[in-house]
Amino acid sequence: MSIDKQSPGVYAGFDHGAAFRQGLRDGIPIGLGYFAVAFSLGIAARGAGLSAAQGFVASLLTSASAGEYAVFTSIAAQATVWEIAVITLIANARYLLMSCALSQRFAPEMPFHHRLLIGTAVTDEIFGITIARPGLIDPYYTYGAIVVSVLPWAAGTSLGIVMGNMLPVRAVSALSVALYGMFLAIIIPPARQNRVVAGLVVAGFALSLAASLLPALRDLSAGTRTILLTVALSGAAAALFPVRDDHQEA
User: Most buried residue, 44, 47, 154, 241, by most Cβ within 10 Å?
Assistant: First the structure.
């Protein structure tokens, strides 16, 4: 049954318990996937010197693979606090857009604290299953998905740190490759579908190598170089290859 967005008191009519249980059910596959990926992320956290408890809290509060990897590698590279803050903001900027999109699907009278809580915990997969629901969204559905997926994510990171301390050095080195495989899985599909993205990926690798060799840039920290390259490439792509909406294309 469809929900009229203009009808008053829609939020009060939601069955929050049923929505929460549906969120738990739909979030189980996400949680299983998160646990496997977070285990490899825990290897990177171990390399940055984090304890199991610190890794658990970091993943629980951040819930972002790219953002956390950027943080852990920046910590390992002894980046400054402001460098870590900026690179985290850049890596997680897409969540601002996801939160804005979700806010348009909530009932107008829904309390603000629900929007704030969901905005702090939304991930790519949680956004996907939430935005796909018809009609206005009950925030308790998203809460159910968050609980059953974010906790395994944090637990996987913590377990990765523990196992990284117990396993031989060669085994840890082999497991760390899995995280790079995850990032390849992220960039290869869009690169195959879009030549602009493919060109930017290649340019990113080339410029990163050049920045580590050029006298003017190699003296900068790894975190600063990453920030500069990310902003420069994304800004150039937005200016030279803007994404057109359906109306402009027509």
Answer: 44
